């Protein structure tokens, strides 16, 4: 096996949402060297990636790892979890809806043992983000989406929100903030904002189309990563200071497990030598499941849009909750992929509302089925298995609320009929069955290497993002989320990246100024 010629101060596994931030921030110091190991190609000169409105064309394509879901007895067993195989990660693949997590989201993390991750501590990181976060541009505000916002306000009495990031909210309807450049519909992804301007830094090395398949250790100290290039060549990339695992909520625990870090019994059953017994790896699998209700429109919808789902609605049904407990994306397309499996037909022209569970109570699990790193892990989200059926009841309420919005003017004037579930589906039982069978994901897996207090045996990382019981290795991506933010999580992941970079710099400074340091 050929050894890599050079070692680096830091090796970042995953050039995605958080990894791009960390690599960019660390290489601001010209004396610090960083290698980024990214399984996919560059996004530079890729209009199919860089053009935000083309996001749906990436699903299931060559830049999608495309993970299946295990059988879901109470949900949809056909859900495919899109994970991006390209520089920028899922920020090069998603709709770039940009919500800063609510203060209650961060405080919930601190309450779960993530000391220093409370709302007051996290607030400064949002202001540091390099992404161009702006409201949907006026010219991208489709007339039917404008009428959706008006109807939601009229039907439900929720406030109109102009700029969801201006202040915390409990409910409201409005156009989203997006991380994009309205003048040309170009993404302001993590790679565009954090890597593209700095690719000429001599201390930044991108190893593209390179797959990290095993972490290496000297005792309990991480020393580097075994990788395989696109041509099959294998090599070892050594880290002088630290390894940063930023491969996302699926591939981070996958890499740990194949490196012998995880539940001992599971690893031994597959014949994987145990490096470090850590029972929480792969547990606490979170997602934002949602269902869909579709209407036919009386003709084509005007073409202008940023990404065909530019507006949304938040509702707080329970005044005791800290934030919204029901969300809707409004799609300017008939989103019928899952209903068609049940026999529904896609209308020629239509729109959709997607009731979404901001704070789902079901918890799943990711696990290996083979010791072969090429075999995809199993993702068992255990959708709608929470004891009180809170998640299922939320979707039923969501369909009923969506119907109220659709019946209100001016949106009602566009609509000719409800396609699915259809106006005859009215009972709680019927609505629940439809909502769960047609449920899909908005691609927000999280929580599989959750952060917690240093004495929490189920936590994978401590508040400093270091893997418990190991040194020289940290995790920074959505896998560390202890709980799911009520809003789309991308900005939260970027902020995790910013905080991780700051933690690394502080550690390096402390080491170089300590007696015996390498200053």
Task: Give the SSE map.
Layout: E1 8-13, H1 17-26, E2 34-37, H2 47-50, E3 67-68, E4 80-81, H3 103-111, H4 119-128, E5 133-135, H5 143-156, E6 172-175, E7 177-181, E8 186-187, H6 190-194, E9 204-207, E10 210-218, E11 221-229, E12 234-245, H7 248-258, E13 261-262, H8 264-269, E14 276-277, E15 283-285, E16 289-290, E17 293-297, E18 311-315, E19 326-331, H9 337-341, E20 350-356, E21 364-367, E22 378-380, H10 390-406, E23 415-420, H11 428-437, E24 440-441, E25 473-475, H12 490-513
Parallel strand pairs: 1-2, 1-12, 2-9, 12-25, 13-14
Antiparallel strand pairs: 3-4, 5-7, 6-18, 7-8, 10-11, 11-12, 15-21, 16-24, 17-20, 17-23, 18-19, 19-20, 21-22
Helix pairs in contact: 1-12, 4-12, 5-10, 10-11
Organism: Streptomyces niveus
Cofactor: FAD
InterPro entries: FAD/NAD-bd_sf, GMC_OxRdtase, GMC_OxRdtase_N, GMC_OxRtase_C
CATH topology tier name of the largest domain: FAD/NAD(P)-binding domain
Helix content: 10-25%
Mean pLDDT score: 96
- Count of alpha/pi helices: 12
Oligomer: single chain
Query: From the helix content, strand content and strand pairing, which structural class follows?
Result: alpha+beta
Write down the Rg: 23 Å
Range of strand content: 15-25%
CATH class of the largest domain: Alpha Beta
Uncertain stretches of 5 or more adjacent residues: none
Number of domains: 2
Tell me what the CATH architecture of the largest domain is.
3-Layer(bba) Sandwich
Major β-sheet profile = 7 strands, mixed
């Amino acid at each position: 096996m050929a050894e890599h010629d050079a070692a680096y101060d830091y090796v970042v596994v995953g050039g995605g949402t958080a990894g791009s931030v960390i690599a960019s921030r660390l290489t601001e110091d010209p004396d610090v060297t960083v290698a980024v190991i990214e399984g996919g190609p560059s996004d530079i000169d890729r209009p199919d990636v860089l053009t935000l409105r083309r996001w749906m064309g990436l699903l299931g394509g060559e830049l999608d790892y495309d993970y299946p879901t295990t059988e879901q007895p109470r949900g949809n067993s056909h859900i495919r979890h899109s994970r991006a195989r390209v520089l920028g990660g899922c920020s090069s693949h998603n709709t770039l809806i940009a919500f800063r997590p609510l203060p209650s989201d961060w405080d919930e993390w601190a309450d779960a043992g993530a000391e220093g991750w409370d709302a007051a501590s996290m607030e400064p990181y949002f202001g540091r983000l390099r992404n161009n976060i702006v409201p949907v541009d006026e010219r991208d505000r489709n007339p039917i989406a404008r009428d959706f916002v008006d109807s939601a306000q009229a039907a439900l009495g929720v406030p109109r929100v102009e700029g969801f990031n201006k202040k915390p909210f409990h409910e409201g309807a409005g156009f989203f903030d997006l991380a994009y450049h309205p003048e040309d519909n170009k993404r302001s992804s993590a790679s565009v904002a954090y890597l593209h301007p700095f690719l000429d830094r001599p201390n930044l090395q991108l190893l593209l189309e390179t797959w990290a398949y095993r972490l290496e250790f000297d005792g309990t100290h991480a020393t580097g990563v075994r990788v395989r290039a696109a041509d099959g060549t294998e090599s070892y990339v050594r880290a002088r200071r630290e390894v940063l695992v930023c491969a996302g909520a699926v591939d981070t625990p996958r890499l740990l497990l194949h490196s012998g870090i995880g539940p001992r019994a599971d690893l031994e059953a597959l014949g994987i030598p145990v490096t470090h017994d850590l029972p929480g790896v792969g547990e606490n699998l979170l997602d934002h499941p949602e269902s869909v209700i579709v209407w036919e429109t009386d003709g084509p919808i005007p073409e202008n849009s940023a990404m065909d789902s530019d507006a949304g609605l938040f509702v707080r049904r329970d005044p005791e909750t800290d934030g919204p407990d029901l969300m809707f994306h409004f799609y300017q397309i008939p989103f019928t992929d899952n209903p068609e499996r049940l026999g529904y037909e896609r209308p020629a022209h239509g729109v959709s509302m997607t009731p979404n569970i901001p704070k789902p109570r079901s918890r799943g699990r990711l696990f290996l089925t083979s010791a072969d790193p090429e075999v995809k892990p199993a993702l068992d989200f255990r959708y709608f298995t929470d004891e009180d059926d809170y998640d299922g009841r939320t979707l039923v309420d969501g369909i009923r609320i969506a119907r109220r919005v659709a019946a209100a003017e001016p949106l009602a004037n566009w609509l000719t009929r409800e396609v699915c579930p259809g106006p005859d589906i009215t009972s709680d039982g019927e609505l629940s069955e439809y909502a769960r069978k047609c449920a899909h994901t908005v691609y927000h897996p999280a929580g599989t290497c959750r952060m917690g207090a240093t004495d929490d045996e189920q936590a994978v990382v401590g508040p400093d993002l270091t893997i418990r019981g190991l040194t020289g290795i940290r995790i920074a991506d959505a896998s560390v989320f202890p709980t799911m933010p009520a809003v789309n999580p991308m900005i939260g992941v970027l902020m995790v990246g910013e905080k991780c970079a700051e933690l690394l710099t502080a550690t390096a400074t402390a080491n170089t100024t300590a007696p015996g340091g390498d200053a």
